[in-house]
């Protein structure tokens, strides 16, 4: 990657992590433009050197924004901060008895399908012969080998699916973008709306602010190399097993 990177896309820029990552990039790279994607554009923080785009599952919507960004020179970093653990109508399932098709579909749309479609349309915008990084927010609980507690069926399965999508995309990108890096990132337990209902038993020192988590993940994006493509890393740089 040519540093400082010139063009960065942040998907889910209206959320706690997406907004913090946008701010971290603007603070670190003084000449960078950040393309901010969100479902609700009015919720994206009004930072300078940003462009705002609507985020949705429609191919034509993504094609239009990808074309506009390609015309400006493509992308150096793609950061996907979208995701769902719970919603007003869904909660993580403590037992298999609580599974429902509707809730599972909602969770997979947010955690697996949307990132996959982002890969489809925006991975080709990374440099062909220089380092470019795609990083998506995954989760340690998406690790099959690290699952000793069970539960949270839809969330675990959707993040495991995302990890497989990342691995597949990393292999394919090696054929056309030889220095590309496609990785998953576990942000830690971040003090945000996503984790708020589940913070009760978390020691205060283990709860990260969105800004601290964002900076640590940006450090990983800067330092990672092609040999690490297809893997998933925690905010503290430890590799998470599949």
UniProtKB/TrEMBL annotation:
<dbReference type="GO" id="GO:0016491">
    <property type="term" value="F:oxidoreductase activity"/>
</dbReference>
<dbReference type="Pfam" id="PF00106">
    <property type="entry name" value="adh_short"/>
</dbReference>
<dbReference type="GO" id="GO:0005737">
    <property type="term" value="C:cytoplasm"/>
</dbReference>
<dbReference type="InterPro" id="IPR002347">
    <property type="entry name" value="SDR_fam"/>
</dbReference>
<protein>
    <submittedName>
        <fullName>C-factor</fullName>
    </submittedName>
</protein>
<dbReference type="InterPro" id="IPR036291">
    <property type="entry name" value="NAD(P)-bd_dom_sf"/>
</dbReference>
<dbReference type="InterPro" id="IPR051468">
    <property type="entry name" value="Fungal_SecMetab_SDRs"/>
</dbReference>
């Amino acid at each position: 990657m040519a540093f400082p990177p010139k063009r960065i896309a942040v998907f889910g820029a209206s959320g706690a992590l997406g907004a913090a990552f946008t701010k971290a990039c603007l603070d670190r790279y003084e000449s960078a433009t950040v393309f901010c994607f969100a479902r609700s554009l009015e919720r994206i923080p009004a930072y300078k050197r940003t462009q705002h785009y609507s985020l949705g599952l429609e191919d034509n919507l993504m094609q239009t924004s990808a074309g506009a960004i390609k015309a400006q020179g493509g992308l150096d970093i793609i950061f996907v901060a979208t995701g769902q653990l719970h919603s007003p109508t869904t909660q993580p399932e403590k037992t298999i008895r609580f599974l429902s098709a509707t809730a599972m579909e909602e969770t997979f749309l947010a955690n697996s399908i949307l990132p996959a479609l982002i890969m489809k349309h925006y991975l080709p915008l990374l440099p062909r012969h220089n380092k470019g990084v795609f990083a998506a927010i995954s989760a340690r609980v998406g690790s099959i080998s690290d699952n000793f507690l069970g539960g949270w069926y839809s969330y675990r399965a959707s993040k495991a699916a995302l990890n497989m999508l990342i691995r597949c995309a990393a292999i394919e990108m090696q054929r056309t973008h030889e220095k590309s890096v496609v990785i998953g990132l576990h942000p830690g337990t971040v003090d945000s709306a996503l984790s708020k209902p589940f913070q009760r038993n978390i020691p205060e020192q283990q709860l990260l602010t969105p800004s601290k988590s964002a900076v640590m993940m940006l450090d990983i994006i800067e330092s990672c190399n092609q040999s690490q493509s297809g893997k998933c890393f925690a905010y503290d740089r430890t590799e998470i097993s599949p």
